[in-house]
Amino acid sequence: MKIGLFSFIFVMWVLIIIGGGILVMILGPFSISGYGDFDSLLTSIFKAIIAILLIIVWILILSKLKNWIFKKEIKF
Amino acid sequence: MTELIIPAIISCVVAFFTVFFTTPYLIKFLQKRNLAVKDVNKKDHVMIVRPGGPSIIAGIMVSEFILYGFLQMNEILAIIITSFLAFLIGYVDDRKVMGGWFKPIALIFAAAPIIFFGVYDSNLSFPLFGTVQIPVLYLGLIIFMISITGNTINSIDVLNGVASGFMIIASFSLSISLFILQNYEMVLVSLPLGFVSLAFYKYHKLPSKIFPGDSGALALGGMYGAIAIIGHVEIIAAIALLPAVINSFLFLSSMKRIVEHRQIKGKPVEHTEDFKLRATKDKTAPITLVRLILAAGPLSEKQIGYTIFKLAIFSGILAIITALMPRLFI
């Protein structure tokens, strides 16, 4: 059990680092243009939506991982 | 940097001894007013006074005001007010049982001083990769960060000494990370949190003489969240908090809604004849960190506490490695 919990924390950490990489490397340089004063606002909203989607994906992956890592223990 | 050593020493000493000396008086005061709850994990009928929040917030405020005297930073004022608001919200819940949504919603307002003083940077910093500019999302992050950290620390306050012990490990990991990132002024601001937790742990450790209550847990969690935002170490702070995050994640994913512990009918753990704790087979009970730790077999309260501390140390090391990443790989 202890190894399972340590593994789960480690996987969460790796996912945070990878998610950060995706945000900075791919999403960071992205910008919307052609809407004048609204460019920065639209870019920000778009980035926010993608970031929230990434968080949802992160939670879904963690849910699957939780069931996989703790499949023996979670018989509650 | 050397000019910061004296304020650092004074604030840490004051933070520690304010809590160390005021808590015994608080315990006597609460005993006189019979403000005690049953410690459900003890064989005998043991009553423990609560809340310890007033001595915790006293330690935070006195030490941070001393630092403000030296550094005159608005960041410190924002942290003081945010921590105090979180304490007040917790104190209301300590005195009058509120609904499950009260604390998460009310704590959103505790983040207001950070926005009001403008002591944040809307670039979200990811170690190793750099920063990403997300002004709209970042405002949302500020609003929810205090709520998340406050409730996360509160949710792990389930056994004697766990919340304060966990905060010692998490906050010192955060201070070390801030030092690595050369954010020395924020190191000073963050250190009292660790020393306040350390002093309170003396009375909170097994067997507890006092419980922090919602006011204590939210004050600690609120201050931690404020340091994370103002110190620009949101990701590192979240990593140091991972065991508590797992606890909240398991709880929410099994219950599928925000609910107060006292509103749950199913029990996640029960006692053996020798009063160790073991996981139940109750399908209506939430999955928690303690329940997962106990899945392999019964353990004493002390053993569970130490397991949580080991997980906290592991997360703390990962947080420090994360802070070191730019130096190691770039």
Structure characterization notes:
The complex is a heterodimer of chains A (76) and B (330). Chain A is mainly alpha-helical and 76 residues long. In chain A, 75% of the residues lie in helices and 0% in strands. Chain A contains two helices and no strands. The relative contact order of chain A is 0.14. The model of chain A has no long low-confidence stretch (mean pLDDT 81). Chain B has helices at residues 5-32, 53-71, 74-95, 102-110, 112-117, 135-155, 162-180, 184-204, 213-230, 234-240, 242-255, 289-293, 301-329; strands spanning 36-38, 47-49, 123-126, 130-133, 269-271, 277-279. Chain B contains 13 helices and six strands. In chain B, helix 10 packs antiparallel against helix 13 (301-329). The longest helix of chain B is centred in the last third of the chain and has 29 residues, at 301-329. In chain B, the strands form three sheets. Chain B has a two-stranded antiparallel sheet with strand order 1-2. Helices cover 66% and strands 6% of the residues of chain B. With 330 residues, chain B is mainly α. Chain A binds chain B through residues 1-2, 4-6, 8-10, 12-13, 16-17, 20-21, 23-25, 27-28, 40-41, 44-45, 47-48, 51-52, 59, 62-63, 66, 70, 73-76, and chain B through 124, 126-137, 140, 235, 238-239, 242-243, 245-246, 249-250, 253, 268, 279-283, 285, 287, 289, 291-293, 295-296, 307, 310-311, 314-315, 318, 322.
Descriptive key words:
heterodimer; A: 76 residues; mainly alpha; elongated; B: mainly alpha; two-stranded antiparallel sheet; 13 helices; 6 strands
Structural class of chain B: mainly alpha
**Ends distance of chain A:** 15 Å
Name the helix and strand elements of chain A from N-terminus to C-terminus, one letter apiece: HH
The number of helices of chain A is 2
Q: Termini distance of chain B?
A: 25 Å
